[in-house]
Write a structure and sequence with these properties.
Blueprint (H helix, E strand, L loop, with lengths): L5 E4 L6 E7 L2 E6 L5 E5 L5 E3 L4 E2 L6 E2 H10 L11 H11 L10 H17 L11 H9 L13 H5 L16
Antiparallel strand pairs: 1-2, 1-5, 2-3, 3-4, 6-7
């Protein structure tokens, strides 16, 4: 499993690997229990972990930067269900430039939970290379996230693009 295929799905806890995308949703595999299911994009939104940024006191950083800092830290990581003060104290030591006014405690707890899930699943935490073919394939998978995108025009409509318009309400001759 690669980090660039990991997604968070609204309304579902945990992290998922995007196995395949369809026009009306995606097929995802849970990193926790390896169950596979179809998730409709009419009900849920998909967020690729590579596209998530974290507010800092300077420039925003990608979530992978925070995960790498957590990975290299010697601090004992609190449980995802720990109290707010313990989570905040942990992040003050591990990544002190986080903007604690804009990053909520619930977000920090989610980062700890996600990091635990990723490490247990053996996912290598790193950004994909921008020029690789795999990144191009994943950008096609991002189309699943476009909830309000316009449907592609039908073949019939595009086949007669240069044809004159038909009159719909033309008077009929009665015999």
């Amino acid at each position: 499993m690669t980090y660039n295929k990991m997604v968070a799905v609204t309304g579902l806890s945990g992290l998922y690997e995007l196995v395949s995308s369809k026009a009306d949703g995606g097929i995802v595999r849970s990193l926790e229990d390896q169950s596979t299911k179809f998730v409709s994009n009419r009900v849920h939104n998909f967020s690729h972990l590579e596209s998530i940024e974290v507010y800092t006191t300077g420039e925003n950083v990608n979530l992978v930067d925070v995960f790498l800092a957590m990975q290299q830290s010697t601090e004992s990581r609190p449980d995802g269900k720990a109290d707010t003060k313990a989570i905040k104290a942990y992040f003050e030591k591990v990544y002190p430039s986080i903007d604690f006014e804009r990053v909520y405690a619930s977000d920090m707890k989610k980062m700890v939970k996600w990091f635990d899930i990723l490490t247990k699943a053996g996912v290598e935490i790193k950004m994909s290379e921008a020029g690789s073919e795999e990144a191009a394939d994943d950008s096609a998978a991002l189309s699943v996230e476009k909830k309000n995108s316009k449907p592609a025009p039908s073949k019939q409509a595009t086949a007669h693009k240069n044809a004159p318009a038909k009159k719909i309400n033309s008077p009929r001759k009665m015999a």
